[in-house]
Write a structure and sequence with these properties.
8 helices
C-alpha cells in the first residue's frame, strides 16, 4: 500500500548520526550541529531514493489479481447494469496493467502505486455499495452513496485508462503520469457515513 516514503525515514539515520557526533562528541555549537545534520538528512533522501523504487513483485501481482476477482464477483451480484459495466472496464484495464507489470518494466513503481490506490479504492466503495444496496428503506446518506457510486467508478476507470494509454504510448520509457487521488465524501457526508457504519 501507499504509505510514507521510506527514503524520508532512512534519511533520519545519517542526520541523527551527524548531530550526535558533532554536538555530543566534538562539542560543536548546537545550531551548527543542527544545520549540518539537516544537510546530512537532505543527502540521505537522495542516497536512499532507491528504497522507494518498486521492481517486479509477484506478491503484489497476486494481491491485485485477488482484488480484481473480488470486483468481478461484485459485478455479478449488483443490479445496476451501468455500474456493472464500469467495473468490467476497470477490471479489463487493470488486467492489462498487471500483464504489463509481469514484463518487469521501467515504470513499475508508478503502476504499482496507482494500482494500490485505485483497486483498493474501488473495492472499498463496492463493499459499501453492496451493503447499502441490500437495505430496503434507505436513508438520505445511503441514497447519496448509491448515486455517487457511478461517479467514483467512472473516475477510477478514466484514471486507469489514462495510465494504460501512457504505458502503451511510451513502451518502456519513463511515463509522464501523476496519480490523481479522489475526494471521497464531503465533511457532512463523512460524519453521517461514520455514524451509519457504527450502526451497521
Amino acid at each position: 500500500m501507499i504509505g510514507f516514503q521510506k527514503r524520508f525515514i532512512y534519511a533520519v539515520i545519517p542526520g541523527a548520526i551527524v548531530f550526535i557526533l558533532l554536538y555530543c562528541f566534538l562539542d560543536f555549537y548546537w545550531w551548527i550541529s543542527l544545520l549540518l545534520s539537516a544537510l546530512a538528512y537532505c543527502a540521505g533522501i537522495f542516497l536512499f531514493r532507491g528504497k522507494d523504487l518498486r521492481l517486479y513483485d509477484p506478491q503484489a501481482l497476486a494481491r491485485y489479481q485477488f482484488d480484481l476477482s473480488r470486483l468481478n464477483q461484485y459485478k455479478e451480484q449488483i443490479k445496476d447494469k451501468q455500474i456493472s459495466s464500469r467495473i468490467e472496464a476497470i477490471v479489463d484495464t487493470c488486467q492489462n496493467l498487471t500483464k504489463y507489470l509481469e514484463t518487469k518494466p521501467a515504470n513499475a513503481t508508478t503502476i504499482y502505486n496507482s494500482l494500490d490506490y485505485y483497486l483498493t479504492f474501488a473495492v472499498q466503495r463496492m463493499v459499501e455499495y453492496m451493503k447499502v444496496e441490500k437495505i430496503e428503506d434507505k436513508s438520505f446518506v445511503e441514497n447519496q452513496l448509491m448515486l455517487k457510486m457511478n461517479v467514483y467508478l467512472k473516475e477510477i476507470d478514466q484514471e486507469c485508462s489514462k495510465l494504460y494509454k501512457e504505458v502503451v504510448k511510451n513502451k518502456d520509457k519513463k511515463i509522464n503520469y501523476e496519480m490523481r487521488r479522489f475526494e471521497m465524501l464531503s465533511k457532512f457526508e463523512d460524519d453521517e457515513v461514520k455514524k451509519w457504519k457504527r450502526k451497521n
